[in-house]
Recover the amino acids of this structure.
């Protein structure tokens, strides 16, 4: 069962709170079809937070302390469900030839299979297990080992897909647990709200509808909230030309106004009417202007305060409309990274100061089958075109995809952002690794879906229909946890812990990195400061504190808790053994 406050993607593209989902309504399935909700149950159970792993360093370093918004990981994929709820999980089968150690006398091939396993409470579950097979260290042995690997690859395929109850995740070996992934799925159908508004028919996706979607994206990125005005880079003639063409389709013509100082960015107004010969310039700027009508009536401008926003219906628009709209945002505020290799060969970043636009970009990107993450930047001063500019707190939306993203870029018109239409588009679920943590008790809802089809949550995570194992509380019996916790920060992991001041492997790689250089830790909260933080604390002067044992102690102040920092001569920085200049750790 799923926790209250979970949102569900309905078949019509609407995102609904699970508490408001009723029997006989239709949900969006992972395969793009609609399926009926057979029944809805309610209970009160322990819930677990299933959360996407990220590399975000939200809790570390100075930015996070100075601005609390930095500590939030925005739009992290997560779901909260009961211990008995099943997840669809995938792990790579990948057999590996291990050249174990210098003194190895045998070839070792690691391989995996799906097999039965008995839980502590006597249930039989089917999960992947690690195995190994050894071969003599001879030419024949190596040949046989390679043959064995090929055979494994052929018979097992690339991945194992299996269903597992949340409470049984601990039965996976550490290696298998970290390579386990769940997925979110693209949304393949569209609600046609924009088409209906523009053409009267929700199923029509004409070039005109797409050009409007693109202009709306462009305006959300670089437009003025007061009127249909967009600033356009004058060094990008293709962009200006495309705006002119797209506007013309809707009976709009452009006027360009320069500010007192001509800047690279030109203010372009979209007028509705016959042409620039009309006497009063602003006459048809807002009145009857189809573009401005779409902006205001479809609420790309929030009623409350007139701020820009991406209305929720855009998350579930026709695929082409979502693509053209996102392309408009990329043309205005986006940056295209170099093409790489593999399934996420394209990367773009879009900057915005509006949280609603950030939310929309992430939702739309994921709905197109692309991965999206958000990083943040504090308010700062930047030099742009030789002028000092005060920049606000910014969200950087990072989107990655293969042919899916290439196709979005094919809608872009800016000279250096546009790409060719890919010959085929591979739109598939996107996999991500996850953590599972006990969260507390909550009201929970169970949805049984016709045909037990997998369906999508509001955030596009694919979940399973509830079954017998969801009825009533299922107790998690195994207590073993593979995870280790870093003593100096909230991080936890399975591997890679390093020696701290006590000589035990208790700090994570990141804290160890800082510890190596600063040689300090807080005796009260165990925080490991950066070297420059130690310097700052020292400049402020020593202060008096109390050790955890209750003894008075003197030293620099910890910025985290106000406790006392201690220098550990053993691991701290010292000059290398007289040969090289500069501080080095011996
Ligand atoms: Zn369930
Ligand atoms: Zn202007
Ligand atoms: Zn740490
Ligand atoms: Zn401290």
């Amino acid at each position: 069962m799923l926790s209250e406050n979970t949102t569900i993607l309905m078949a019509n593209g609407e995102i609904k709170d699970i508490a408001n989902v009723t029997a006989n309504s239709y949900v969006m399935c992972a395969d793009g079809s609609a399926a009926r909700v057979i029944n809805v149950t309610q209970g009160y159970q322990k819930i677990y937070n299933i959360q996407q792993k990220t590399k975000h360093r939200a809790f570390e370093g100075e930015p996070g302390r100075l601005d609390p918004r930095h500590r939030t990981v925005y739009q992290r994929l997560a779901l909260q469900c009961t211990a008995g709820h099943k997840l669809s999980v995938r792990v790579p089968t990948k057999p590996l030839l291990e050249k174990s150690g210098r003194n190895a006398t045998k070839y070792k091939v690691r391989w995996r299979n799906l097999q039965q396993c008995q839980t502590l409470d006597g249930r039989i579950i089917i999960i992947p297990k690690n195995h190994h097979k050894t071969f003599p260290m001879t030419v024949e042995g190596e040949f046989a080992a390679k043959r064995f690997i090929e055979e494994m690859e052929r018979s097992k395929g690339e991945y194992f897909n299996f269903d597992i109850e949340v409470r049984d995740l601990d039965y996976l070996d550490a290696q298998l647990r970290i390579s386990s992934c769940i997925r979110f799925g693209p949304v393949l159908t569209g609600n046609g709200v924009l088409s209906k508004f523009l053409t009267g028919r929700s199923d029509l996706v004409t070039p005109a509808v797409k050009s409007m979607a693109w202009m709306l994206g462009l305006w959300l990125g670089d437009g003025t909230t007061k009127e249909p005005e967009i600033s356009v880079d004058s060094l990008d003639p293709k962009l200006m030309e495309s705006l002119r063409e797209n506007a013309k389709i809707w009976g709009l013509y452009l006027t360009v106004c320069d500010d007192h100082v001509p800047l690279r960015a030109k203010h372009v107004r979209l007028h509705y009417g016959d042409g620039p010969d009309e006497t009063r310039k602003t006459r048809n700027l807002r009145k009857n202007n189809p573009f401005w009508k779409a902006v205001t009536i479809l609420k790309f401008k929030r009623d409350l305060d007139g701020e820009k926003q991406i209305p929720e219906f855009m998350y579930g628009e026709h695929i082409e409309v979502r693509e053209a709209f996102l392309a408009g945002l990329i043309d205005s505020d986006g940056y295209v990274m170099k093409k790489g290799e593999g399934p996420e060969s394209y990367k773009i970043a879009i900057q915005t100061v509006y949280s609603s636009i950030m939310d929309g970009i992430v939702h739309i990107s994921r709905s197109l089958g692309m991965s999206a993450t958000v990083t943040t930047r504090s308010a700062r001063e930047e030099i742009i075109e030789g002028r000092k500019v005060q920049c606000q707190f910014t969200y950087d939306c990072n989107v990655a995809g293969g042919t899916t993203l290439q196709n979005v870029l094919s809608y872009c018109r800016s000279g250096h952002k546009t790409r060719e239409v890919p010959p085929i588009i591979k739109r598939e679920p996107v996999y991500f690794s996850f953590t599972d943590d006990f969260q507390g008790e909550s009201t929970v809802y169970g949805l049984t879906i016709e045909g037990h089809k997998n369906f999508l949550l509001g955030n596009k995570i694919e979940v399973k229909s509830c079954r017998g194992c969801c009825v009533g509380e299922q107790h998690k019996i195994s207590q073993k946890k593979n995870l280790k916790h870093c003593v100096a920060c909230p991080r936890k992991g399975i591997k890679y812990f390093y020696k701290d001041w006590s000589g035990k492997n208790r700090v994570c790689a990141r804290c160890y990195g800082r510890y190596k250089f600063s040689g300090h830790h807080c005796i009260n909260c165990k925080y490991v400061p950066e070297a420059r933080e130690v310097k700052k604390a020292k400049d402020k002067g020593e202060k008096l504190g109390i050790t955890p044992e209750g003894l008075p102690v003197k030293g620099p102040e910890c910025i985290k808790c106000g406790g006392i920092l201690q220098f550990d001569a053993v691991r701290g920085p010292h000059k290398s053994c007289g040969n090289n200049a500069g501080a080095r750790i011996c």
User: Anything to note?
Assistant: The pocket of zinc ion (ligand 4) is lined by residues 522, 524-525, 527, 558, 560-561, 563 (CB under 6 Å).
